């Protein structure tokens, strides 16, 4: 039953994406016309975006802007200019629940009809961006963050990334 629900959501996202190329999660209206994916950023929000947990680097077509939480060294990484860069120190991946399910399909593409990138969720657009979930002081307000959680800290005005042990902040 859970797979049917997930397939239904994926199909709805693809259909919605083909007409509007913009998706809001947890709300009815997108903030701005230059957004491909937007989250409900109400005051008091404590929900962030969880990055995919991989064992080592992903295989397939890598593109700049690929984010992962690598459980082999418990670090959040981004692929940039054909090099993996660390966005966190070594954290703790013991809370990560390993997904041993067989993969199927190429994932969901938002913003364009096709993409050369290989990912679970690919945001592909020439003129639209993703707005991260906004959380005020996530180190104080997110009680049980999951390794690989990413958000925008509205108090410090920085990118906040949880590595399983501590929050890492980037200006």
Shape: globular
Radius of gyration, taken over Cα atoms and rounded to an integer in Å = 16 Å
Task: List the helices and strands in order.
Answer: HEEEEEEEEEEEHEEE
Instruction: Give the number of domains.
Output: 1
Mean pLDDT equals 81
Per DSSP E runs of 2 or more residues, the count of β-strands stands at 14
Helical residues, percent: 10-25%
Instruction: Give the distance, in angstroms, between the N- and C-terminal Cα atoms.
Output: 42 Å
Provide the low-confidence segments as ranges.
Answer: none
Multimeric state: single chain
**Biggest β-sheet, characterized?**
5 strands, mixed
- In what range is the share of β-strand residues? 25-35%
The class by helix and strand makeup works out as alpha/beta
Number of helices, where a helix is a run of at least 4 consecutive DSSP H or I residues: 2
Organism: Chryseobacterium culicis
Protein name: WG containing repeat-containing protein
Q: How does this model look, in words?
A:
It comes from Chryseobacterium culicis. This is WG containing repeat-containing protein. There is one protein chain. The chain is α/β, with parallel strands linked by helices and 171 residues long. The chain has one domain. The protein contains two helices and 14 strands. Strands 3, 11, 12, 13 and 14 form a five-stranded mixed beta sheet that branches. The protein has a four-stranded mixed beta sheet with strand order 4-5-6-7, with no helix packed on it. Strands 1-2-10 form a three-stranded parallel beta sheet. The longest helix is centred in the N-terminal third of the chain and has 19 residues. The radius of gyration is 16 Å and the shape is globular.
């Amino acid at each position: 039953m859970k797979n049917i629900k997930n397939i239904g959501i994926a199909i709805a996202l693809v259909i919605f994406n083909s007409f509007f190329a913009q998706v809001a999660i947890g709300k009815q209206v997108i903030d701005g016309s230059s957004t491909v994916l937007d989250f409900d950023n109400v005051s008091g929000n404590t929900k962030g975006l969880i990055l995919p947990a991989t064992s080592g680097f992903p295989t397939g077509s890598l593109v700049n802007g690929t984010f992962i939480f690598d459980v082999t060294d418990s670090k959040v990484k981004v692929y940039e200019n054909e090099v993996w860069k660390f966005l966190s120190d070594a954290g703790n991946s013991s809370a990560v629940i390993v997904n041993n399910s067989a993969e199927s399909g190429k994932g969901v593409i938002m913003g364009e009809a096709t993409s050369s990138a290989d990912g679970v969720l690919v945001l592909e657009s020439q003129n639209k961006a993703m707005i991260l979930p906004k959380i005020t002081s996530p180190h104080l307000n997110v009680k049980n963050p999951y390794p690989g959680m990413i958000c925008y800290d509205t108090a410090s005005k920085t990118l906040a990334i949880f590595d399983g042990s501590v929050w890492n902040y980037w200006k």
